[in-house]
Amino acid sequence: xxxxxxxxxxxxxxxxxxxxxxxxxxxxxxxxxxxxxxxxxxxxxxxxxxxxxxxxxxxxxxxxxxxxxxxxxxxxxxxxxxxxxxxxxxxxxxxxxxxxxxxxxxxxxxxxxxxxxxxxxxxxxxxxxxxxxxxxxxxxxxxxxxxxxxxxxxxxxxxxxxxxxxxxxxxxxxxxxxxxxxxxxxxxxxxxxxxxxxxxxxxxxxxxxxxxxxxxxxxx
Length: 220
Ligand SMILES: N[C@@H](CCC(=O)N[C@@H](CS)C(=O)NCC(=O)O)C(=O)O
Description:
single chain, alpha+beta, Glutaredoxin, Glutathione S-transferase Yfyf (Class Pi), Chain A, domain 2, 2 domains, 4-stranded mixed beta sheet, 10 helices, 4 strands, binds glutathione
């Protein structure tokens, strides 16, 4: 059986376990990382020398890097579903996954980190404002794409929706202003109809470090 190492509160772990559920695959998850520790144990470092989550093992294949894991699972188990078969849709899925990771994730993470993961006295308000301004620009690009197609890769859900899908839920839960993006709103509502998304991505985030720590513990 496929094994995953990583706490459920991690957005990078969520990408992988959501993808596994979309593919209908059974998996065994080991809770490590964050307050649970374990990522600096020698056996763990053998699997991921970066001491980060997630790690995935499938038979003789052990991998780190969440996006690469999602693409591996899609290639092995989701040809024509999570991984588009048509070259045009596959190209779009690859492009948007890469783009979301490089252009959107850092800004959502900056807001999240400052509003939730540090104590109010350590908050960097300028970093939050700068990230908010950048998100207005980049989310307009995503919104335009989603005006032209139902999902990022075209008319079908694919791994091109996974990265922003996970991060957008987190963003939606933060106490901050968000740009008006009607096509992202429609896409986000469609995501929320997917049982696997509801189960693994729509988890409590919290609005303070104390709430985050409590949620992390409960989620495991
Ligand atoms: N590029 C890596 C980043 C992994 C990463 O930064 N994971 C975070 C959680 S989202 C982590 O391991 N933090 C330390 C911890 O949980 O102990 C990936 O996508 O897998």
